[in-house]
Specification:
Strand content: under 5%
Shape: globular
Largest sheet: 2 strands, parallel
Radius of gyration: 17 Å
Strand order of the largest sheet: 1-2
Number of helices: 11
Low-confidence stretches: 1-24
Number of strands: 2
Order of helices and strands: EHHHHEHHHHHHH
Distance between the termini: 16 Å
Length: about 250
């Protein structure tokens, strides 16, 4: 996951936890349907596909989820779909449309979190804020960047083995500018995600961890190692536009 310098200008500050007193704790992850994973993977293999290719895919998956799911589960799946559409539009340099997708997903998650401290709603909101920090103003990043750590920690407090939440929680160590990053600690966390059984990791989590290790190697000017890690990530999503552009 790529973050520019402005993304976490204040993430080195102390983060105050938001109290969840009075809320139920939902640690059960959503039962995402197979069609969601197919759609997700299509958006991650995007380099040779224009946005028009994705319009019917998006409309079909939204119709399916709206028909087959209800309540918070429906809202969470739709928010996750909007997150991936936002990433897709961001990669295609359509930042205003990307922002609209991210904002819609954030609003869905906020509504859920007013009722319960839901692990998926915390995580998706953190993911969307992190993407908005890339494409929106410095003022937005300053104001909202610290929420990424807070929200991802809330997800981890509910589900300590959730690899996606641990990755986002660790992202400030990787992607904040010097002197606020901590590559040593960040890479140690990535290795823990990749090479221990402490966390649940699916193919997307592994992709993010590989690409983050490649990103660190680029920052440290070790381009041979960077290519090694990026090539491992490309084995998962070989047509990923971000990775292809990142590879030195």
């Amino acid at each position: 996951m790529r973050f520019y310098t402005k993304t976490f200008l204040l993430t080195f500050l102390s983060i105050f936890c938001i109290s969840s007193f009075g809320f139920s704790q939902n640690s059960i992850t959503v039962n995402y349907p197979e069609s969601y994973y197919i759609f997700r993977d299509e958006t991650m293999n995007d380099v040779n596909k224009n946005l028009e290719y994705y319009t019917p895919l998006y409309n079909n998956i939204v119709s399916e989820i709206s028909r087959d799911f209800s309540g918070n589960e429906k809202e969470i799946i739709l928010a996750k779909i909007e997150y991936f559409m936002g990433r897709l539009y961001r990669n295609k340099k359509q930042n205003k449309d990307a922002e609209n997708f991210f904002n819609s997903a954030i609003e869905r998650c906020k509504k859920i979190l007013k009722k319960e401290n839901n692990v998926e709603a915390n995580l998706i909101q953190a993911e969307c804020i992190s993407q908005n920090c890339i494409i929106k103003s410095t003022a937005y990043a300053i104001s909202n960047g610290p929420k990424i750590k807070t929200l991802s920690q809330k997800a981890l407090d509910i589900d300590p083995a959730y690899g996606s939440a641990k990755y986002i929680n660790n992202s400030q160590n990787i992607f904040t500018p010097t002197p606020f990053n901590n590559y040593k600690e960040g890479v140690e966390c990535l290795d823990e995600l990749l090479f221990t059984d402490k966390y649940r990791m699916d193919k997307l989590d592994i992709y993010f961890a590989y690409s983050a290790k490649g990103y660190v190697c680029i920052q440290e000017r070790d381009f041979e190692k960077a290519r090694y890690w990026i090539d491992l990530a490309l084995e998962i999503y070989p047509e990923n536009q971000y990775l292809i552009e990142l590879r030195p």
